[in-house]
Amino acid sequence: MTFAQLQTENRRLYLLKTLKLSADYRMSDMLLQSALTALGYGASLAVIRGDIAWLEQQGLLSTEAVPGMTLAKLSNEGVDVADGVSHTPGIARPRPE
Q: Which residues of 23-39 are buried (b: 16+ CB within 10 A; e: fewer)?
């Protein structure tokens, strides 16, 4: 596995974990970008939007287009992956806390 793959898999995991921390399980793409940057998983908005689209294809979140941004909302399956209850290839598994 390459370093770039490790970064992608970990960024996707922390994207799900960040959504899980939100009171209504949703957040804008721009806020997710800022949160991931603060966690050390910074990436361009285009990369974050690509991750959101990929996670939506996996059924782990849904999106809603709002003028100028995309809102991502975590699904029940996304919570399971964020918690390590289930695993999706392409997303890092969380470590025990």
A: eebbbebeebbebbeee
pLDDT digits (tens, 9 = 90+) for 12-28: 999 999 999 999 999 99
Packing angle of the helix pair 29-38, 45-57 (nearest 10 deg): 110
Say which CATH topology domain 3-81 has: Arc Repressor Mutant, subunit A (1.10.10)
Q: Which of 27, 9, 13, 1 lies closest to 83, judged by CA?
A: 13
pTM of the model: 0.95
Q: Other CB atoms closer than 10 Å to residue 62's CB: what's the count?
A: 15
